[in-house]
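ENTRY TYPE: paired fold submission
RECORD: A
CONTENT: sequence, then structure tokens
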Amino acid sequence: MSELHLTRDRVYAFIVAYKQAHDGNSPTYRQILKACNISSTSVVEYHIRHLIADNRLRKVNRSFEIIGAHWLAPELCECT
């Protein structure tokens, strides 16, 4: 797998983990940049555009939706 795809997968995994840890809120481009060791926000935007084109993410206003995922508030989750 190419380095670009590995970085894109890291970006996706970070977004998913961040949303899980922060009540469904999305990370900023700068948070993604720092967490994934990316050189600039334009590179983050590049990977986000490709994740959207691959139907892995959807951009809604200033946040991301994970395609195929459903978020439940912790108090509504029946997890043990």
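RECORD: B
CONTENT: sequence, then structure tokens
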Amino acid sequence: MAQVVDDFDFDAHKANQSDYPWDQWLNGQTWKLKAGVDFSVPLRNFTSAAYAAGKRRQLEVQCATDTTTNVVYLRAAKAVKVKKS
């Protein structure tokens, strides 16, 4: 049941805090990330999170998954906006 509270420390529970070092992983280099070591969610969920983290940073993210080894290859670059003619 919903409750009204007198006070809550929002700074301690920021929604934008992440379990992953996105700023490091989205630095333009190609990263090989292993499920169970570097991240703890299914490959599909991790790639979705990577695309979203890139979008928040205005980056274009590329992901390739290897389901036989549970690895994601990840790279980000500055997003290029294409002008429509």
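NOTES ON RECORD B: Helices lie at 22-25, 43-56. The longest strand covers residues 59-66.
STATUS: closed
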